[in-house]
Hints:
- The chain is about 40% helix and about 25% strand.
- The protein has ten helices and twelve strands.
- Strands 3, 4, 5, 6, 7, 8, 9, 10, 11 and 12 form a ten-stranded mixed sheet that branches. The protein has a two-stranded antiparallel ribbon with strand order 1-2.
- By secondary structure, the chain is α/β, with parallel strands linked by helices.
- It starts with a helix and ends in a 6-residue tail after the last helix.
Amino acid sequence: xxLRHLEFFVTLAKTEHMAKAAEELNISQPSxxxxxNTLEDELGVPLFEKDGRNIKLTNYGxxxxxxxxxxxxxxxxxxxxxxxxxxxxxxxxxxxxxxxMGQDLAPRLVHEFFKDPKHQNISFSFKxxxxxxxxxxxxxxxxxxxxxxxPDNIQKDQINxxxxxxxxxxxxxxxxxxxxxxxxxxxxxxxQYPLIAYSKQSGLKQTIDKMLASENLKxxxxxxxxxxxxxxxxxHWNFGVAIxxxxxxxxxxxxxxxxxxxxENWHELFAITKxxxxxxxxxxxxxxxxxxxxxxxxxxxxxxx
Length: 305
């Protein structure tokens, strides 16, 4: 069905006059008649009937007009929305981030992005989850960009990785723990005690396992959890110790954080996008901003978060 013919139909229904409608549409009367006849042939019903020198809608035409108007309005809204998405100063970004990055970095980057007046008309939706959950949503086009750990079991050609920051990995002990008077600690010293560990669903597990393997350590795991604050809760009540990322919003009365003496006591965090996938100008602008901001404020200064 020809979209232009539908527009002709709406105009003719409004004017109820062939000559006036043709003039308004800047087409010939025969062209208008052909368009209406084609529609009627496709539908199998008459849309107009003669009314003296003018014409008027049939009952079928009045019913059809309602649906055509609604459909054209929705198409116009869609076209307007696409135009907004293609405007670098407008558009919408679906942003996903891991639980750890929701503590500070994700909201900080969006906050800093909005400081530029040109970005005030860009809107965001947010989703928090594990790295693998977020990557799956990214590949399903439910998210535009994510902040997360480097995912495992994902083919390299499926995603683009942009290194943003390195997050310090620290030890957490109860405030009443024998190690709570320390400021730094080695992994062998820490793992004399039961470990409250991250489960395999967490993107942190791979980094922590690598740290332990480098020193041939096999901890006694008391329990596993996917979520930072659950781990903190069990450490607080002295069920064991933990190896966690630096959490800037963690209250000082919950646990004592200790620096770990290790060759690589940090965890790499990335911005991740879908490979070979169209990005709107607003998404590209945000990605460029976060990469530049993190390079300038963290990576170039060798600063851990």
